[in-house]
UniProtKB/TrEMBL annotation:
Its main location: cytoplasm. This is Ribosome biogenesis GTPase A. Keywords: Cytoplasm, GTP-binding, Nucleotide-binding. GO terms for biological process: translation. GO terms for molecular function: GTP binding; GTPase activity. It comes from [Eubacterium] siraeum DSM 15702. Required for a late step of 50S ribosomal subunit assembly. Has GTPase activity. NCBIfam families: GTPase_YlqF (TIGR03596). GO terms for cellular component: cytoplasm. It holds the Pfam family MMR_HSR1. GTP binds at residues 62-65, 134-139, 178. InterPro entries: G_CP_dom, GTP-bd, GTP-bd_ortho_bundle_sf, GTP-bd_ribosome_bgen, GTPase_MTG1, P-loop_NTPase.
Length: 282
């Protein structure tokens, strides 16, 4: 796989967000952590586990329609074995989202039983929704509340400030801003976050990133690349120059427009046009 230059990311507001989540945690009964099915482990902020501690947790493997189905099923088994409640969903299409409320009530069955024994009725279950930017947190809130109460955009870090969303008389969600960690010790994690768009393109070399992604896809999902870019079965690993020429992306003098080709490769991966692809396995 092609080398990608060192990626670092120092968003100033993330420290404030971490403090806010720590303060709000005492208000909730459980935590719903949304991850990207294509990179479940790389899209989990280790800081979130430190903050939430022993709170009951449900992990939502979101964007399942973009990920390799078999690999996502492996991740669900993996997280279940670790003691989490894990569910597979796609918040844009709505697939699997209806299972959230029954899953939460199952996760908190002990708490519900204690409340019942004490004669406490009508008290809502409260769940904090956490996740790094661009995993589909706002899409999930909008889909499950059916009210479009949070703004959804295709760029990282759009949700500002925590807000409550009532689903019914029995369940309330606390939406929090997406939180990335301030320093990447593992560059492979940073690169995978770059592939999916969780890190803004303007802090990276997109040509290096797209070339590296092409390398991974050629090794693991060769058929998808051949089909998408109409390549010959016997072709060698394509590079951005080849993609640019195939697409007629040329600049003055007939030279291939490498940057445009890089943007196309990244966009087509992120939007699922390259097929269902997973970037890591448990």
């Amino acid at each position: 796989m092609a080398q990608v230059s060192n990626i670092q990311w120092f968003p100033g507001h993330m420290t404030k967000t971490k403090r806010q989540i720590e303060a709000d945690l005492k208000l909730v009964d459980a935590v719903a952590e949304i991850v990207d099915s294509r990179i479940p482990e790389s899209s989990r902020n280790p800081v979130i586990s430190d903050i939430t501690g022993s709170k009951p947790r449900i992990i939502l493997l979101n964007k399942c329609d973009y990920a390799d189905e078999k690999v996502t099923a492996e991740w669900q088994k993996y997280y279940t074995a670790q003691g989490y409640k894990a569910m597979i969903c796609d918040c844009r299409s709505g697939k699997g989202v209806k299972a959230f409320t029954p899953n939460v009530k199952n996760l908190l069955s002990d708490l519900l039983a204690k409340r019942k024994a004490k004669g406490i009725v009508g008290q809502s279950l409260r769940v904090m929704v956490v996740g790094i930017p661009n995993v589909g947190k706002s899409s999930f809130i909008n889909r499950i509340s059916k009210a479009g109460k949070t703004k959804v955009e295709d760029r990282p870090g759009v949700t500002r400030g925590a807000q409550w969303v009532s689903l019914d008389k029995e369940l309330e969600l606390l939406d929090t801003p997406g939180i990335l960690w301030p320093k990447f010790d593992d560059q492979q994690v940073a690169i995978k976050l770059g592939y999916t768009g969780a890190i803004k393109d303007d802090v990276m070399d997109v040509c290096e990133l797209a070339d590296s992604l092409l390398g991974y896809l050629w090794e693991n999902y060769k058929g998808n690349v051949i089909t998408r870019y109409k390549l010959d079965e016997n072709t060698e690993k394509p590079d951005l120059e080849m993609i640019a020429r195939k697409r007629g992306m040329l600049i003055s003098g007939g030279e291939p427009d490498i940057e445009r080709a890089a943007a196309a490769v990244l966009d087509e991966f992120r939007s699922g046009k390259l097929g269902r692809i997973s970037l890591e396995r448990p």
